[in-house]
């Protein structure tokens, strides 16, 4: 039986040979298995997060009876925000999971390679000190990114102004938020550098048109025509769901020797602001043409007010 235990004629396992083989190859195999396990764990976590995000988004679409996310623009704001915020949180959780799994795998690999626990603790203390000195920016990015998402400051698909970059949010990560501007440029903005967020996709928006007309024009007639044009547009079936309040003429914004500037405002859904502004300008132009009003040169117009230059 002793011979069997040593791998003799009995065909038993040669434990001594196995131990020798494991001593030579055990560490590399353990490292390889740890790396594979980390990738598998991340794939599983990512799939679970993706599934949860998909179920939430699908449930919102089903509840709103919408075929796609874009169609939710005509649904209550809360439903749109749930979709955008859920996707942003999913993006952040994926990144966080990758960091945590990677750190855990690194600790296992170091243990397999024979690094004792005391050394791991010392290394953790060293890394903590390094983080406190040299990685403050990363920590700031991390915390600011979490707060932005969980406070619903922005979400994937939102149109935002982050100061240095403005456009549509394409991705929200732990460290970087990706924003694509109107020219198609993709901006990578560090979360820690974002000190203000202007979100054009939350709540409602306002189309503001400062219309200049010649000084000699009948201001009452022009004002009434502008209001009529805006009201007709708001009552059109194509705009009933996107204009959410009655249009208004706020009055004369500025007066010069060449022109009088009249401010027309229309309250819309956030997602419809720019489309509504373009259509309203087209209708205003047609309405003024009907009155026979010839517009003055824009180079001579000076707009004065707290929202100077907004049109």
TrEMBL record:
GO cellular component labels: plasma membrane
The keyword RNA-binding is assigned to this record: no
Transmembrane segments: 22-45, 91-114, 120-139
Superkingdom per UniProt: Bacteria
Keywords linked to the UniProt accession: Cell membrane, Membrane, Transmembrane, Transmembrane helix
InterPro entries reported for this sequence: LSM_dom_sf, MS_channel_C, MscS_beta-dom_sf, MscS_channel_2nd, MscS_channel_C_sf, MscS_channel_TM-2, YbiO_bact
Broad class of the protein's primary localization: membrane
All residue ranges annotated as the Mechanosensitive ion channel MscS C-terminal domain in the record: 208-292
Gene Ontology molecular function: mechanosensitive monoatomic ion channel activity
Pfam families membership: MS_channel_2nd, MS_channel_3rd
Membrane topology listed for this record: Multi-pass membrane protein
Cellular location(s): Cell membrane
Boundaries of every Mechanosensitive ion channel MscS domain copy: 138-199
PANTHER family: MODERATE CONDUCTANCE MECHANOSENSITIVE CHANNEL YBIO
Similarity comment: family membership: Belongs to the MscS (TC 1.A.23) family.
Protein name stated in the entry: Mechanosensitive ion channel protein MscS
Organism for this UniProt entry: Agrococcus baldri
Record lineage: Bacteria, Bacillati, Actinomycetota, Actinomycetes, Micrococcales
């Amino acid at each position: 039986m002793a011979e069997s235990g040593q791998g003799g004629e009995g065909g038993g396992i040669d434990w001594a040979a196995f131990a020798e083989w494991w001593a030579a190859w055990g560490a590399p195999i353990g490292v390889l298995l740890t790396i594979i396990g980390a990738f598998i764990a991340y794939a599983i976590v990512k799939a679970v997060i993706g599934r949860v995000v998909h179920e939430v988004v699908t449930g919102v679409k089903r509840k709103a009876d919408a075929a796609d996310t874009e169609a939710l623009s005509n649904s209550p704001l809360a439903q749109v925000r749930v979709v955008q915020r859920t996707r942003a949180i999913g993006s952040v959780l994926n990144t966080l999971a990758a960091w945590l799994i990677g750190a855990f795998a690194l600790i296992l690999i170091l243990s397999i390679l024979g690094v004792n626990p005391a050394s791991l603790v010392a290394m953790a203390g060293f890394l903590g000190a390094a983080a406190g000195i040299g990685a403050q920016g990363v920590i700031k990015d991390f915390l600011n990114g979490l707060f932005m998402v969980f406070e619903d400051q922005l979400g994937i698909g939102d149109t935002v102004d982050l100061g240095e970059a403005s456009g549509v949010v394409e991705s929200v990560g732990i460290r970087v938020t990706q924003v694509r501007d109107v020219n198609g440029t993709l901006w990578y903005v560090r979360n820690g550098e974002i000190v203000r967020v202007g979100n054009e996709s939350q709540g409602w928006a306002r189309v503001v048109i400062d219309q200049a007309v010649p000084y000699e024009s009948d201001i009452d007639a022009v004002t009434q025509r502008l209001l009529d044009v805006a009201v007709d547009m708001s009552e059109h079936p194509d705009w009933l769901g996107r204009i959410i309040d009655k249009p208004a003429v706020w009055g004369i914004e500025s007066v010069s020797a060449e022109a009088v500037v009249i401010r027309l405002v229309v309250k819309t859904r956030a997602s419809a602001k720019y489309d509504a502004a373009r259509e309203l300008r087209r209708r205003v132009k047609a309405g003024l043409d009907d009155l026979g009003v010839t517009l003055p040169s824009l180079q001579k117009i000076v707009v004065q007010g707290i929202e100077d230059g907004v049109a």
